[in-house]
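FAQ

Q: What does a record look like?
A: Structure on top, sequence underneath. For example:
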């Protein structure tokens, strides 16, 4: 089956064509066709893997572990659909706002780099080789640095440089870890590594490799206190880039963390060392608290939502650090929920930016979209955010961890404060200040469309919960 390789080849080819066309409209059309196609292909892969089927593709006909293997199961099929959906919505949303925020001569290049970045993310998701993950990680990272730098303000260049430094450090730690694993096992294929590592559980080299990989990925995930690059990148990037990154970048890195641990180390009975579990738990809790507190005092809407992302990443890592099926299920649900709601919220902020030219909280338009999405971020019932937080709350209670339970409640209270702060500013506006005539209808429709899954999965969450439970069961087997 060639569907796995098509996921990588299609955006990679389109990226080159966009660069050659060097035309805004043609590049946008090609990006739209590309993201629609990759979403369709990933949906087919999800249908085929839903009942447990695993799809393998050997690149060039070379059999693993000697050749490069692409492997699709339910876990990466779901993440593929999520990433491709966010990418498609970003493209639909971005046509007009890119013309406003980016120099005309750079827009075609923006779409080209965007597709390179997307192909890197997809490559990370489909490959079954730890070194190939690094290769695609570098493709996506180099593209990301350029995308951040395309903003017109000087802060974009500063944020891009800081992103580059942090990204390079994270990638270096990851590569050192891969090198240590290869020196101990002589293989890079994830499935083969799992077999080799099972006989080397007490190897200091293997354990060191694992620690290096985890540290590198935590930098890429932007877990507190390694989150400064994320806040600056989100706030200084063009709106199109921020919408795309907020729903994809850190989620792909969390996927890599889960994939490598559960596919290589957990299967060989090498549990996360207790001290590392405790460290992850502490950092997650600190991220929840400090992310919420910094969001409360922030006046720039992009930075407010960026600090909120730091807190939400803390919730996801909290679920993972519980080392339980319930915690892992909750983390997966939270990944999906946060990816959609945060991209949608940045769409609303993009509308404000398009109309007023700033992202200051004082200029936020009255928006029922923002209120609904804000309620989901807080975790109000009948929203998808409530489902994610409910399952995380149950997993914490089942683990009998009362300190995390207190922090969980505190973090939710902090989210109420910073979301309510924004809603209060909207409600205090006079009717004369409100107007949406200048905002293109496509931008508003995209924002509204993102609410649909928030409400549907908030009212009827069984499909998503079942999928998350299947994935956690698969990873823990």
């Amino acid at each position: 089956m060639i569907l796995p390789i098509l996921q990588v080849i299609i955006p990679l080819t389109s990226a080159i064509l966009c660069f050659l066309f060097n035309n805004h409209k043609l590049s946008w059309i090609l990006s739209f066709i590309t993201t629609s196609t990759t979403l369709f292909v990933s949906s087919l892969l999800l249908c085929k893997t839903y009942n447990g089927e695993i799809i393998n593709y050997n690149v060039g006909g070379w059999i693993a572990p000697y050749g490069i293997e692409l492997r699709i199961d339910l876990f990466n099929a779901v993440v593929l659909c999520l990433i491709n959906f966010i990418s498609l919505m970003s493209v639909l949303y971005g046509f007009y706002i890119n013309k406003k925020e980016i120099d005309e001569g750079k827009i075609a290049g923006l779409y080209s780099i965007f597709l390179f970045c997307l192909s890197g993310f997809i490559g990370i998701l489909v490959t079954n080789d730890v070194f190939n993950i690094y290769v695609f990680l570098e493709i996506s990272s180099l593209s990301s640095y350029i995308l951040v730098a395309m903003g017109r303000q000087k802060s974009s260049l500063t944020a891009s440089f800081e992103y580059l430094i942090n990204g390079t450090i994270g990638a270096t730690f990851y590569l050192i870890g891969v090198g240590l694993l290869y020196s101990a096992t002589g293989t890079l294929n994830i499935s083969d590594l799992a077999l080799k590592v099972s006989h080397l559980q007490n190897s200091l080299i293997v354990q060191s490799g694992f620690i290096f990989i985890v540290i590198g990925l935590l930098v890429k995930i932007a877990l507190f206190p390694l989150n400064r690059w994320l806040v600056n990148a989100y706030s200084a990037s063009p709106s199109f880039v921020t919408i795309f990154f907020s729903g994809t970048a850190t989620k792909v890195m969390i996927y890599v963390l889960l994939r490598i641990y559960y596919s290589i180390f957990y299967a060989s009975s090498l549990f996360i060392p207790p001290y590392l579990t405790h460290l992850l738990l502490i950092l997650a809790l600190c991220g929840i608290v400090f992310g919420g507190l910094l969001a409360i005092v922030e006046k720039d809407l992009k930075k407010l939502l960026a600090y909120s992302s730091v807190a939400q990443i803390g919730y996801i890592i909290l679920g993972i650090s519980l080392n339980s099926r319930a915690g892992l299920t909750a983390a997966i649900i939270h990944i999906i929920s946060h990816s959609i709601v945060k991209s949608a919220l940045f769409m609303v902020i993009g509308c404000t930016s398009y109309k007023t030219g700033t992202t200051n909280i004082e200029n936020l338009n009255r928006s029922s979209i923002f209120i609904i999405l804000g309620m989901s971020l807080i975790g109000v019932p009948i929203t998808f955010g409530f489902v994610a937080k409910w399952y995380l709350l149950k997993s914490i209670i089942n683990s009998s961890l009362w300190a995390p339970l207190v922090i969980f409640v505190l973090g939710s209270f902090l989210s109420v404060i910073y979301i309510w702060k924004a809603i209060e500013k909207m409600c205090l506006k006079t009717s004369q200040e409100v107007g949406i005539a200048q905002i293109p209808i496509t931008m508003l429709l995209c924002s509204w469309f993102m609410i649909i899954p928030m409400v549907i999965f908030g009212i009827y969450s069984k499909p998503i919960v079942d999928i998350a439970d299947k994935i956690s069961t698969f990873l823990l087997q």
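Q: Is there anything notable about this one?
A: The chain has 19 helices and two strands.
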